[in-house]
């Protein structure tokens, strides 16, 4: 056994055949996720890649940033996910006057029947299992920062007291890529806490036709529960047990480290990237590759998973230089160049 395998046996394919119980659990989870995909697809039309990307994020235990113009069913997707996956879902509309206490909650002074006074904590909407942060970049940096601790540590601190959030806890945030007036760009520390960025495009003609036929009549389709939140927590633990080959680990490290101007072997990355992905990108890719494999009915991730997930995992963790902007070089172009180093 190699030194890497000895330090972390979950990273590489074990020498012995896979545990039959693990294979059975993975196959069972694959069937459950297939049923969940079908249930979501009956409500959300023409967005299969978006559905898959969101499910990969949730199976990985992470948070997702949804980028798309209004009217592409972002809110409907979050509501549907809450029902299908058995999660307690809440929505917060981010506005410039939104305060941290409007998200986290606050302590109020109360007096009991004996006249004794004390503070009681009133939880905010963040105390849920699936939080939709709608148009997250419209709130001030102070309010945006209120989510940092909850997204990373799954708890919040109010008036010096810690309060644990429910498990599981996920944030699905939305942004409008067109209307940027009156917005505040998300800081790099918060962007890094999103496991994936999923870009939502327009549906194709047939999907839009089905949408018209379904949503403009009185015969509406409502989501139905398929999993419970306990099932999702179990699935997230199972994803972390899926073995991953050394070649996939090396592909992840090559991709991420070449995306950093300080360690890249590519001159164009050194010239066009101001800052690159940190260690969270490697962790996110490892988890997302495992989850994508299960989503596709496979028992182990491959390099194809790394290549497919490179853009959604890396694009919000990199920033172009002024030279890149002047030359018309986009982050998508640079990620495509990074993918050529893997294989």
Question: Overview of this structure, please?
Answer:
The chain is of the alpha/beta class and 343 residues long. The chain has 16 helices and 11 strands. It has helices at residues 3-7, 20-41, 48-59, 74-84, 100-104, 141-144, 146-153, 188-191, 205-215, 229-241, 246-258, 267-272, 279-295, 303-314, 322-327, 331-339; strands spanning 64-67, 89-93, 105-111, 117-123, 130-134, 155-158, 161-164, 170-175, 196-199, 273-275, 319-320. A 5-stranded parallel beta sheet has the order 2-5-8-1-9. α2 packs across α10, α11 packs across α13 and α14 (303-314) runs antiparallel to α16. InterPro entries: ATPase_AAA-3, CbbQ/NirQ/NorQ/GpvN, ChlI/MoxR_AAA_lid, P-loop_NTPase.
Which stretches are low in confidence, meaning pLDDT under 50 for 5 or more residues running? Answer: 1-17
The helix/strand series, from N terminus to C terminus, equals: HHHEHEHEEEHHEEEHEHHHHEHHEHH
Rg over alpha carbons:
21 Å
CATH architectural name of the largest domain: 3-Layer(aba) Sandwich
GO molecular function: ATP binding; ATP hydrolysis activity
Family: Belongs to the MoxR family.
Pfam family, one: AAA_lid_2
Domain ATPase AAA-3: 63-196
Element layout with pairings:
Layout: H1 3-7, H2 20-41, H3 48-59, E1 64-67, H4 74-84, E2 89-93, H5 100-104, E3 105-111, E4 117-123, E5 130-134, H6 141-144, H7 146-153, E6 155-158, E7 161-164, E8 170-175, H8 188-191, E9 196-199, H9 205-215, H10 229-241, H11 246-258, H12 267-272, E10 273-275, H13 279-295, H14 303-314, E11 319-320, H15 322-327, H16 331-339
Parallel strand pairs: 1-8, 1-9, 2-5, 5-8
Antiparallel strand pairs: 3-4, 6-7, 10-11
């Amino acid at each position: 056994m190699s030194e890497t395998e000895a330090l972390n046996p979950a990273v590489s394919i074990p020498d012995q055949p896979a545990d039959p119980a693990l294979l059975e659990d993975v196959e069972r989870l694959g069937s459950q996720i297939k049923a969940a995909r079908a249930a979501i697809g009956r409500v959300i039309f023409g967005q299969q890649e978006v559905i898959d990307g969101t499910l990969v994020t949730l199976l990985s235990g992470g948070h997702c940033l949804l980028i798309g113009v209004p009217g592409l069913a972002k809110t409907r997707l979050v509501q549907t996910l809450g029902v299908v996956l058995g999660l307690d879902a809440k929505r917060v509309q981010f506005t410039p006057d939104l305060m941290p206490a409007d998200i986290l909650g606050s302590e109020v002074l109360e007096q009991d029947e004996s006249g004794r006074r004390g503070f009681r904590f009133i939880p905010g909407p963040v105390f849920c299992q699936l939080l939709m942060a709608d148009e997250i970049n419209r709130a001030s940096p102070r309010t945006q920062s209120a989510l940092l601790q909850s997204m990373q540590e799954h708890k919040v601190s109010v008036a010096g007291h810690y309060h644990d959030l429910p498990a599981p806890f996920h944030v699905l945030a939305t942004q409008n890529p067109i209307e940027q007036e009156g917005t505040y760009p998300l800081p790099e520390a918060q962007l890094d806490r999103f496991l994936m960025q999923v870009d939502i495009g327009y549906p194709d003609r047939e999907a839009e036709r089905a949408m018209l036929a379904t949503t403009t009549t009185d015969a509406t389709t409502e989501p139905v529960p398929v999993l419970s939140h306990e099932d999702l927590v179990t699935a997230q633990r199972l994803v972390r047990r899926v073995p991953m080959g050394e070649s996939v680990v090396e592909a992840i490290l090559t991709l991420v480290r070449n995306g950093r101007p300080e360690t890249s072997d590519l001159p164009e990355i050194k010239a066009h990237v101001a800052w690159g992905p940190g260690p969270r990108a490697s962790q996110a890719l490892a988890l997302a590759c495992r989850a994508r494999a299960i989503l596709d009915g496979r028992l182990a991730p491959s390099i194809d998973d790394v290549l497919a997930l490179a853009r959604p995992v890396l694009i919000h963790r990199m920033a172009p230089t002024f030279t890149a902007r002047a030359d018309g070089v986009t982050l998508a172009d640079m990620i495509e160049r990074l993918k050529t180093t893997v294989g």
